[in-house]
Amino acid sequence: MAGLYFHIPFCKRVCAYCDFYKSADLRRMDDLLAAMHRELDDRRGYPGGEAVTTRYFGGGTPSLCTPEAIRGLLDHAAQLFDCSGAEETTLEANPDDLTAEYLGGLLEAGIDRLSIGVQSFDDDCLKLMNRRHTAAQAAEAVRAAQRAGFGNITVDLIFGMPGFGGDTLRRSLDAALSLGVQHISAYHLTVEPDTAFGRRAARGEFRAVDEQISETEFLTVHHTLTEAGFEHYEVSNFALPGFRARHNAAYWHGAKYLGIGPAAHSFDGEERHWNVGSVERYIAGDPAERELLTNRDRFNEYVMTALRTAEGIDTREVAARFGTKRLERMREEAAPYLQSGALRDAGGRLAVPPERFLISDAVIEALFET
Ligand code: SF4
């Protein structure tokens, strides 16, 4: 097994852009953790005894868990699976949870990579997003993590926020760089209907940025970070050499993973499972839903994830996994994009140049098998 994922669905406050599954009822934390331990036991055979190479606590807000709770889940998993070769154990954290004492506890629990949800280093932008922290708190959280001994830190940033591009975006990028983090995830704001921004947009009180601004900001992010030595290795991800996110890369490369917790997904190489997206129903033991992936589903998934990475599609892998007929069809569909420069062929790998990742969806759609 490549990855083990724990989903902690609680948040103290709901961010204006977020449509992830989450709950604000923190009173259910103990019951939730007990249910997650039960799920670990129930799925001890998943998926066939492979060793765990990466572990990831996502959410929601995993930093609302005590270090003891984190350690409890990791220790339990280590009794059930071979975690002795785990290369990366990440925890997503909100900046205002990261006290020196808490950070020390996380290190002792076995967390070696922190993903800090900064989103912006501009207080007005953070306020509009309804984040819990200020820019100063975010910077201090990164410094505190470094003082505690974390040497692998990623921060999340959001661009495409109406009214906060240009200099504000550049200042946020500069602030992240000046803190000396090893990895930055920069996501374009998506205005989803079931969010505060979505509801404001429906009332005509909020407008997403237009395509031209999107592209300008995307290129600002791309150039600023790559000029600072970061590799733009996936649509939204930038890393200093040696610091790519291993857990996420496993998803992108079709590796197996087990997801524990409400709304968590799992993949055993053939079948995808997803747990019920409700804390109450998860605690009550409602079963996961499953979907058997056809060869075509797997091919389309491979195309979609591979074209979002700098490595792109390995044509030899396509031939080996999906057959030469599919490869031939894909090459035909790819020809006009190769000609226009939207795709490059480097030694049998078809890849979207990173500075054009923003328009990769059109290429992906063209190469899909319908
Ligand atoms: S963005 Fe993160 S912290 Fe904010 S509501 Fe969504 S899951 Fe919670």
Structure description:
The protein has 370 residues and is an alpha/beta fold. It is built from 14 helices and 15 strands. It has helices at residues 29-42, 67-80, 100-109, 123-129, 135-148, 166-178, 196-202, 211-227, 246-252, 279-283, 295-306, 315-322, 324-340, 360-367, and strands at 3-8, 54-59, 88-93, 113-119, 153-159, 183-188, 231-234, 237-239, 257-260, 265-267, 271-274, 289-292, 313-314, 344-346, 349-351. The strands form 3 sheets. The chain has a 9-stranded mixed sheet with strand order 7-8-6-5-4-3-2-1-9, sandwiched between helices. It has a 3-stranded antiparallel sheet with strand order 10-11-12, with no helix packed on it. A 3-stranded antiparallel sheet has the order 13-15-14. Helix 1 (29-42) links the parallel strand 1 and strand 2 (54-59). Helix 6 runs parallel beside helix 8. The radius of gyration is 21 Å and the shape is globular. The mean pLDDT is 95. The structure holds iron/sulfur cluster. Iron/sulfur cluster binds at residues 11, 14-15, 18, 20, 22, 59-61, 94, 117.
